Request: fold
Amino acid sequence: MIERIERVAVVGAGYMGTGIAQRLAAAGVAVTVTDATPEQAEQGRARALRDVARDVEAGLLPAGTTDAVEANLTPAATLEDAVRDADFIEEVVPEVLDIKRDVLARISAAATPDAIIGSNTSTIPVRRMADAVERPERFLVVHWSNPAHLVPGVELVVGEHTDRGVLDPVKALLARASWVGAVVGDAPGFVLNRLQYALVREALLLVSEGHATAEDVDIVLRTTLGFRMPFIPPIAMLDMAGLDVYDKCFGLLQAELGDRFSAPSVLTEAVADGRHGMKNGRGLFRDYPPETLDEIAAWRAKAYTGMSRLLAELGPMPGTQTETETEELPA
Ligand SMILES: NC(=O)c1ccc[n+]([C@@H]2O[C@H](COP(=O)([O-])OP(=O)(O)OC[C@H]3O[C@@H](n4cnc5c(N)ncnc54)[C@H](O)[C@@H]3O)[C@@H](O)[C@H]2O)c1
Reply:
């Protein structure tokens, strides 16, 4: 298996493929892009260059980035040409199982035997694609989020046959372009979509049951949960707010809303075992030495204050400012 990835091929120069390719090329990685036709591969490269030039112009990327992308991003006329010398190949074709399987079979036939192969699927399990790949131990899902050139997190989905030796080189490649890889199992929705769809489902139920307008649901989400989440995500928040508190609240919600709100046994068992979170130094999956609590509080104050400043500086998404928010803005 390849130990260090130097050359990458991106198969599918559409929306996601172009974003992945442009950030890799900007980070100095040699990338070849290909698509169904040579013209589409050229168009993908041209779009990447336009996007980068626009972001340089806006001051979002350093001045030399366009030159780096121009030098490192090459279009290839065919899939076989693109993947032949690549250490890592990412499939980014439409979310249709037959197309993915066909493209993965072609990739694995044309690539070197020790090249690592990834798929950017959002929803198809590794196990439904792996048998289309020659040497499936080198295959995993490497799932970028939209827009790939801006969102830092990438899911690395390991299938039953995936050799875990692929993870280090893929993580190192991601780190070169300042992405962060998280390893997740081959379960439906992986991690991101399972969480996202649970949240969206409840948001829409709240609206359709008449408990809040869509606008107010979004205000609550982005000014409370969403506001805190980049710094203190849900499991850390459990520790901060108190495991015993969450356990009681699950009980109350379950009584009113049914079993989809029952407390997971990992939580009830931890509470029964005396784990109450930061307040007694015993969190769900880790402990907190007393001397770190002040440091955490100071860091949180800095984080939330910084977030408030950024939001004030940016203003709301264009076209979405509400009357209430207009009134609240300082003169
Ligand atoms: N768009 C998103 O928000 C998003 C987010 C995460 C993951 N994804 C996943 O990324 C993948 C691509 O999505 P997208 O939004 O970039 O789609 P897209 O339609 O913009 O791009 C797909 C590209 O694949 C090309 N293609 C089709 N058949 C091909 C073939 N046989 N060989 C080479 N290229 C071929 C198409 O011409 C097109 O350019 C999908 O699996 C999707 O689920 C998308």
About this structure: The radius of gyration is 23 Å.
